Amino acid sequence: MVGVSNGSTAVVECETEAFPEPLRYWERSDGSLLENGDKYRINNTLEKRGYRIRMQLKISRVTPRDFTYRYFCISKNELQTTRGELQLYELDPRLPPPRFTTELNKETIFGIHPPDKVSYEDICGPPIQCPECDKDAIKCSGVSLVDLISHWEVRPFDDNKTYPGYPSRTKGNGITRELFIAKNDKL
């Protein structure tokens, strides 16, 4: 619940956390979709931290009718729709602000909570040592691109040489075509 004086501006906020990226919007309890204009100012990406985003709705020139509605911040993606509910109540500027119990003033969480964080070790278990590798030597590290390129030999195409599995190449139409063969002696 958000307290506001009649004729002033109310600011209500909602924080959502969702993956994949959700569609976020505000709705009123009469089914009206709220849009930016003279009455409402909406910022649905006020603060972004990872998958968490804070949404804000400013209601200007609050009237007694605005107190009759509930306002919903809605976050919707392919997996689920979550709807937070907020309500305005009227503050009398001539009286001190009311004291709320912790029950009325607490944060409410809607929707399904995200799963607990786990480490890769919990999911996959300890890494398995390669049986062919010596623990002190790095034999199974693979071959780098630099290793491959540094051992290439480039030479002109030989008309008399054939390569099994490849069609024969010829010179044709008066245009000389050359083919360069890259050969790696190490692999």
How is this structure best described in words?
It holds the Pfam family Ig_3. It comes from Acanthoscelides obtectus (Bean weevil). The chain is mainly beta and 187 residues long. The chain has helices spanning 102-105, 120-124, 145-150, and strands at 2-5, 10-17, 23-28, 40-49, 52-59, 70-76, 81-91, 152-155, 181-184. The chain has a domain at 2-93: Immunoglobulins (Immunoglobulin-like, Sandwich). It is built from three helices and nine strands. A hairpin with a 2-residue loop joins strand 4 and strand 5 (52-59). The chain is elongated and about 100 Å long. Residues 173-187 have low confidence and may be disordered.
Binned strand content: 25-35%
- What percentage of residues falls in helices of 4 or more residues? under 10%
User: So, the CATH homologous superfamily of the domain at 2-93?
Assistant: Immunoglobulins
CATH architecture group name of the domain at 2-93? Sandwich
Largest sheet: 4 strands, mixed
Briefly summarize what is shown.
By secondary structure, this protein is mainly beta. The chain is 8% helix and 33% strand. The protein has a domain at 2-93: Immunoglobulins (Immunoglobulin-like, Sandwich).
How would you summarize the topology of this molecule?
Layout: E1 2-5, E2 10-17, E3 23-28, E4 40-49, E5 52-59, E6 70-76, E7 81-91, H1 102-105, H2 120-124, H3 145-150, E8 152-155, E9 181-184
Parallel strand pairs: 1-7
Antiparallel strand pairs: 2-5, 3-6, 4-5, 6-7, 8-9
List keywords for this structure.
single chain; 187 residues; mainly beta; Immunoglobulin-like; 4-stranded mixed sheet; 3-stranded antiparallel sheet; 3 helices; disordered C terminus
